[in-house]
Amino acid sequence: MTGPALGQTSDVTADRLARLRRTHAALALLHIAQAVAILLLGGDAKLPVDASFLEGPPGGDSPFGRVNLFDLPVAPAIAAFLLLAAVDHAWCAGPGRGRYEAALASGRNPYRWAEYSVSASLMVVLIAMLAGTSEVTALVAIFGANAAMILFGDLMERRNEDRETADWRPFVYGSVVGAVPWIAISLQLGVAQSETSDVPGFVIGIFVSLLVLFMSFAVVQLLQFRTRRSDRDPLTAERRYNALSLVAKSALAWQVYAGALAG
User: Fold this and answer.
1) Alpha-carbon distance 117 to 251, whole Å?
2) Which residues, other chains included, contact 19 with Cβ-Cβ below 8 Å and sequence gap of 6+?
3) For 125, phi and psi rounded to 5 degrees?
4) How high is the pLDDT of residue 9?
5) pTM for the full model?
6) Which helix (H) or strand (E) is 77 found in, with range?
7) Is the dihedral of CA 37, 213, 120, 223 positive or negative?
8) Coil/strand/helix, residue 229
9) Could you give the C-alpha distances from 263 to 118, 129, 260, in angstroms and in order?
């Protein structure tokens, strides 16, 4: 006889779900408050989004041309990923509560991954821009690679919903894809430092702290699926994801505020 499917547990009780709903409601309000504060306190700092193009035949001597497509306002960009988190938490605490809790009882939270795929990818793009990346094609690629990593996280939960032992392929593939944006940002920082020797300290701080926090999400999923036990507690993983999401978004928001927006 086999036990319940991986991720299913009797520990998902009504009392614990009620506490989780209150947590989601509080997190929604906290993210909204931070977004409003950033919009009110932040200045008008902007980051360029550019495009390069050949001004002559490929392989010729003509240099690349460059055009500014638009400037991204930093404060609204920060508010955007904070508000995306607020919408997700409000959905899980309110109108989407039934479907969210049913999925959570099976060890999944598709709403989390849907939100992360946009909000976390916007965060990584903002980090890349602070490091000096402005080429629109590079920014689109960074966004896409990070979104793909997040969606592999969703696939990891879906793939293992009815399995007693975990299939780690989505986790491995996601880890490989997810490393690409950080490698690109590392290269950009290295070039900037070699050319100017004056990369702002707050940018280095953002890169290191957010890299550690993003890696911590992988650790949470690793712990979530590390054993064959079929009585894992999905609410424990959910609390960890919620805490990490709050810390990561808040850390990026206020580090950017302190380094680029304050004053």
Assistant:
1) 18
2) none
3) -60, -40
4) 47
5) 0.91
6) helix 74-93
7) negative
8) coil
9) 29, 20, 8
Distances (CA, A) of 229 to 2, 3, 16, 223: 11, 9, 21, 12
DSSP code at position 162: T
Q: What is the pLDDT of residues 69-121, one digit of tens each?
A: 999 999 999 999 999 999 999 999 999 999 999 999 888 999 999 999 999 99
- Closest alpha carbon to 239 in 124, 117, 149, 104: 104
User: Which tokens in the block code for residue 103?
Assistant: 């999925």
Q: How far apart are CA 65 and CA 172, in angstroms?
A: 39
Evaluate whether 225 touches 168 at the Cβ level (below 8 Å): yes
User: Which residue type sits at 128?
Assistant: A
Separation CA 235–CA 224 (nearest Å)? 10
Q: Residue holding tokens 């006889």?
A: 1
Rounded Cα–Cα distance for residues 251 and 205 (Å): 10
pLDDT tens digits along 169-206: 999 999 999 999 999 999 999 999 998 888 899 999 99
Amino acid type, 177: V
Q: How many CB atoms lie within 10 A of CB 52?
A: 15
In the chain, beta strands by DSSP E:
46-54, 64-73
Distance in angstroms (rounded) separating the CA atoms of residues 17 and 237: 13
Using alpha carbons, list the distances in angstroms from residue 216 to 81, 128, 219, 220. Answer: 19, 19, 5, 6
95 to each of 21, 109, 214, 235, how far by Cα in Å? 11, 15, 29, 19
